[in-house]
Amino acid sequence: MLLISGSINSHLTEILKYPVKEVVYVERDPALIRLEEIPLSEGEANLVIETDDAFRYVRSTPKMFDVIILLLPPPSSLLLNKYYTAEFFSSVKARLNPGGVFMCSPGISASYYNDESVRLFSSVYNTLSGVFRNVMPVEGQKLYFIASDSELSASFCQLADERKIHNTYVSADFLSDDLVTAKSEEIVALMDRNVPGNRAMFPVACFYYQSYNLSRNIHQKTPSIIIILTLFVLPMFLIKRRNILMYSCASALAGFEIIVLVILQITAGNMYQLTGLIIAGLMTGLAFGAGFSIRLLNNLSVTVKSLILVCSYLLAGLLVTGITEIKSLSVVTGLLILSSFIPSLLTGHLFRIFTLKSGSEADSVTSAVYTADLAGSALGFILISGLIVPALGIRAGIFIISAMVITGFVAGGAGKKL
Fold first, then answer.
1. What is the mean pLDDT of residues 122-127?
2. Has residue 41 got a pLDDT over 70?
3. Crossing angle of helices 272-291/329-354, nearest 10°?
4. 109, 143 contact by CB (below 8 A)
5. Which of 155, 244, 273, 336 gets the highest tally of CB atoms within 10 A of its CB?
6. Kind and range of the H or E run holding 101
7. What is the C-alpha to C-alpha distance for residues 4 and 1, in angstroms, rounded to an integer?
8. What residues contact residue 184 under an 8 Å CB cut-off, 6+ apart?
């Protein structure tokens, strides 16, 4: 059995009610493992603890399992979303023995399912249905999805009695198999088959979760949207026209940084050291571009520099699918560092030429450009990570980033100004 995250202390007691030979527990944070008091006596099931990213572990382990249980939180972020994608579910299926069962929970259960929750659960349900022959929703404190290529049953009380498993709450004293089955069929009828499945390159479940979270309190939804627009869009109208290109380039680079980190999570797993390398590569490019006079770039016009910047983003958008399929960790990391270094170098160089003023106006010009830079970065972070990538996908997000640079060039009239 493979248990992904969750408390091993509380779950192992339940697991040992079954004739389990080995339990593999995957938890990325070693500090959490040290806090657990593992209730395992000598002679019981063998417990193997893996301090690894679950996404990477499932893809790389040669072990086969009869049961895989995912206890990670719902797809509330781009990081967690990858555990609810078709790619991850396919890796899970490849690690299951014939007749094996997989379980996950994409969110809390509710007595009433609104449109936003239906879209969220439908996305995960449709994704699972595209990988497994049978998917059964079970409502408890959370909404659980059980998936297998073999036949599934919601008659938990009957099955527990037949196997002489002694439960306190999952028993006929507290549950009715008929009601559990009826509720499962009711939820299946609610699932919208037209909702797109969740994929690594198209993390739509993350978008649906954010929409569902806002819909849970209608009095918070409108104020939240107003605050976001005020904080991140209003500054765009306060930026001077000559700095709009800087604003758009900074926004594009910030959004591209988010996308590169998401790609890293998809290909390499939750790698903190590699994340630092990616960010370091991007900051190095900014430092070189802004701090050094590069003759090759100095000889190019702003129009040509902007065109190169747009092309670098477009090329990344065309190659992104191929990059996610590369198995070599070093090759993927190198390509991601290179793909972020080039646009950061050009963006840093644009900052340099925008601030090359002398005399009494130098300080005010630098301050204005720096303000545009920071405001653009803030917009890029929230727009790409919170809306564009979850709603439209990674590739579309990169193409929109290219459009940001073009829009800034045209709106700022940079070709005439510099």
1. 96
2. no
3. 30
4. yes
5. 336
6. strand 96-108
7. 10
8. 136, 137, 138, 139, 154
